[in-house]
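=== RUN LOG ===
request id: a7f3
mode: sequence -> structure
chains: 1
length: 138
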Amino acid sequence: MNSLLARITNNKHFQNGLPFFLFIFGGGYALREFRSVRYDSELNPHAKKLIKPEEAFGDIANKAGSKVQLKKSKATLEEDLDTLYEKVDLDNWENKRGPRPWEAGSIKERPVRRFEHAPPTVEELTQSNIGDKYQHRD
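=== RESULT ===
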């Protein structure tokens, strides 16, 4: 019996596989328990409370000023879709091919902004105070 227990505990499937499966299935169980606390109205009094957009995005509206509109529109989704169809012509369109990096001239060349600096010289590396930052340390 003792040798069987020693063989099982020394098995690499037992040493690596068992903790893995415990982590996977135990983690799922723990997450389910934590999630139930979040949505259970008996444990969390704020679980069923619906917040208004003014409460949720009030700080963003204050920072942005008049850019953010929190008022609901009176139009339904169908009316919004109809206004979108009026603005966009879906019958007359053209397929435009995007730029390909391997084709010459398809992507505009942009100027590279880098600081020009030369590698350190031998004199700079041999100086005691400057060479310290270039020396490799283990």
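=== NOTES ===
The chain is about 45% helix and 0% strand.
The chain has a mean pLDDT of 79.
=== END ===
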